[in-house]
Amino acid sequence: MLNFRIGLLALLLLFGAAQAQAHMREIRLGTHTDLSGPAALYGVAVVNAMRLRLDAVNAAGGIQGRPVRLIVEDHGFQLARAVQAVNKLIQRDRVMAIVGALGVPMNNVALPLQLKAGVPNLFPMAASRSMIEPHHALKFLSGSLYYDQIRSGLGWMLAEKGKRAICALYQDTDYGAEVLAAIQNTLAPQGLALREAVPHKPGDTDLAANVARLRHAGCDLVVLATLFRDTLLAMGAARRSGWQVDFLGPSTVYDYMIEQAPGGVTDGLYAMASIALPYRDTAAPEVLAWMDAYKRAHGAEPNAGAVYGAAIIDLAVLALDRAGANPTGLNVARAAEGIGGYRDIFGGTVQRFSAQNHQGTQQAYAYRLEAGRFRRLTEALSYR
């Protein structure tokens, strides 16, 4: 019996040692995102795209011979759950970095915890200036900000389309405040001011009165700080009243779902984004292969969130590979600073990072929705 117990103890010790060794070899990445709340359509797709890429990485031998594991926590787009999620990822899972975390408010509450623990925040799904300001060694953003997109797009509309009576329809949130700041900082050097700015709550279900106020103000361009539903509500109300004003929005309105709006109410919408949505009938072979692989793995066509997720994890893999055989959070961050001239397979704007610049690009393309499909109008635009 004594020999049996000693043997059992030895087996348990060996098993524990094997688990510890596997943990040491494994590169652990984490993300906190929305899998069950109002932004789940994006959160699920981002995670699916990241897993698709990491499955391929691991099948090819991992990074520097080490497997990569993505640990996903669902915050349901709730702040308290985001705090719980990031604490678990840092303290229990001991992730090396957090990648593609979704939501500006959720990132804002998680960032102090991450930075204190030395865990980089790589390429969040959140386009607010707080993701990169103030500058920090562990904060990185891929893509342009809502602020950048509106400044570039509005500047182009002023110069190329002759717009002068600028109005805003915006969510009364931090997101709306970012867009308003971009509008005001673009108009002021031109000696212009906002003609009218009309707020609404994210949950509002009728924007007819808001749109009527804008029409009464005589706007010739309405800049949007909206998501899917309120974009449809606003443009639908305008079209039903016979008002054919132009609308311009940031990347939140550049989406396949916007293209599919009933009755074509969103046709004519201008959108700014640093990504390029692929279409099967025009996709390059590499992109078509990715679309097929995504559909096989997840049973659905990729959406805009999947496109973002694919680019985000590609950048993260590049940084991990450059960080060497024994990466830490800090040297992964330093490796990310060395990424330059990167362009995703879909044709997004070129991304460059440095020790002084942790935002990949400030540029964005101008698109217009025509006959149910976004058509790119410009090369990459910048306001600087």
Explain what you see:
It is built from twelve helices and twelve strands. It is about 45% helix and about 15% strand. Helix 3 (about 80-90) runs parallel beside helix 4 (about 105-115) and helix 7 crosses helix 8 (about 230-240). Strand 6, helix 6 and strand 7 (about 195-200) form a beta-alpha-beta unit. It has about 375 residues and is an alpha/beta fold. About 45% of the residues are buried.
Highlighted features:
12 strands; 7-stranded mixed beta sheet; alpha/beta; 12 helices; globular; 384 residues
Please outline the helices and strands:
Layout: H1 2-25, E1 27-33, H2 40-59, E2 68-74, H3 79-92, E3 97-99, H4 104-117, E4 121-122, E5 139-140, H5 146-160, E6 166-171, H6 174-187, E7 196-200, H7 208-216, E8 221-225, H8 228-240, E9 246-249, H9 256-259, E10 270-273, H10 285-298, H11 304-322, H12 329-336, E11 365-370, E12 373-376
Parallel strand pairs: 1-2, 1-3, 3-4, 4-5, 6-7, 6-8, 8-9, 9-10
Antiparallel strand pairs: 10-11, 11-12
Helix pairs in contact: 2-11, 3-4, 5-6, 7-8, 11-12
| Radius of gyration (Å) | 23 Å
H and E string: HEHEHEHEEHEHEHEHEHEHHHEE
Number of helices: 12
Name the poorly predicted regions: 8-23
**Beta-strand content:** 5-15%
Mean pLDDT: 94
